[in-house]
Amino acid sequence: MAHKKNASKSHRRHKSVTPKREPEALKIITTKLADDGVELYRLRFVGHEAADDAWKTKRQLEERHREILEKWIEGLKQGSIKRREVHWKEEVVLRKVNAAGNSIVEEVPLRG
Fold this sequence. Notes:
Distance between the termini: 73 Å
Strand content: 25-35%
Shape: elongated
Strand order of the largest sheet: 1-2-3
Region (Disordered): 1-24
Number of strands: 5
Protein name: Chromo domain-containing protein
Organism: Pyronema omphalodes (strain CBS 100304)
């Protein structure tokens, strides 16, 4: 006799997944232009350091952090916020380590 398959899968338990919440935004630190010409805003979060900053587009800020974006734009208009350019410099370094591999003996900048 063949076993009858259950057509409904509702009896299976689904693990609920809680989406990861972004920390509360504190302020915009600066802006820059991405390679594709889109303006990005560097966002600082409450209780976090600069290493945790995130770059967001204007659209992302309008959706989640509208008040902070409006405060930034108003500050630019009033002159209380000065726009700073962010420049990136990439440097490649060859690190020579000792035989045990636990200490850097020399760092040599590579030019390409």
